[in-house]
Amino acid sequence: MPQTPPKFVILDRDGVINLDSDQFIKTPDEWIPIPGSLEAIAALNEAGYRVVVASNQSGIGRGLFEMSALNAMHEKMYKALARLGGRVEAIFFCPHTAADDCDCRKPKPGLIQQAAQRFGIELRGVPIVGDSLRDLQAGVAFGCTPHLVRTGKGEATLAKGGLPPGTLVHDDLRAFSRWLLEGEGTRHGAAASHAGTAASPSATSPVDSTNPR
Ligand SMILES: [Mg+2]
Ligand SMILES: [Zn+2]
């Protein structure tokens, strides 16, 4: 029997929870949730999942906005979530640019590692949800299961290909959440590694049909 992964979900922010922009999200006004995304987080919480965010925020390193603006955006997110009965446990972010050569800018694993250490969890089997390849790569290194959403840069990421084996594709965070919660009964404690993948076939499709999980 494989070990049941902890009820934990790691999310990218821009293009997954909120609308993305090539001009960066620099102010609370520019931080606009994708329809259904906050409800999806609340639904995960309701089912006992703890949710954390891991986000590259190189706009800070580029001097496009200050930490105070980032905090204000996250305050907006926390408040909007709270109105729905949802919460994010923590937001791990990388403020650096590629030139800084840090170990936290995804696809580097630093942010994911920080989350695992903070919450004392074993990452194997924990879903990681992103709209870019690097989001998934950062988690796959630890055995997280990769989930791509089509929102944000998702369609472009899908078109480029080269996703980690077993990546599942969902229309958006709401579709991911439904998929995870619908499949719970069959996946948890199930010996078959493919159990649960039949849920929501219209919204969720495996990229690599040979190993959907
Ligand atoms: Mg993103
Ligand atoms: Zn960094």
From TrEMBL:
Tell me the domain of life: Bacteria
Give the GO molecular function terms: D-glycero-beta-D-manno-heptose 1,7-bisphosphate 7-phosphatase activity; metal ion binding
Concerning InterPro entries, the annotation shows: HAD-like_sf, HAD-SF_hydro_IIIA, HAD_sf, Heptose_bisP_phosphatase, Histidinol-phos
Sorted UniProt keywords: Carbohydrate metabolism, Cytoplasm, Hydrolase, Magnesium, Metal-binding, Zinc
GO BP annotations listed = carbohydrate metabolic process
Annotated stretches, region: Disordered: 187-213
Q: In which pathway does it act?
A: Nucleotide-sugar biosynthesis; ADP-L-glycero-beta-D-manno-heptose biosynthesis; ADP-L-glycero-beta-D-manno-heptose from D-glycero-beta-D-manno-heptose 7-phosphate: step 2/4
Task: Tell me where in or outside the cell this protein is found.
Answer: Cytoplasm
Please write the reaction equations for the catalytic activity of this protein. Answer: D-glycero-beta-D-manno-heptose 1,7-bisphosphate + H2O = D-glycero-beta-D-manno-heptose 1-phosphate + phosphate
Q: Subunit arrangement?
A: Monomer.
Q: Could you identify this protein by its name? A: D-glycero-beta-D-manno-heptose-1,7-bisphosphate 7-phosphatase
Gene name for this UniProt entry: gmhB
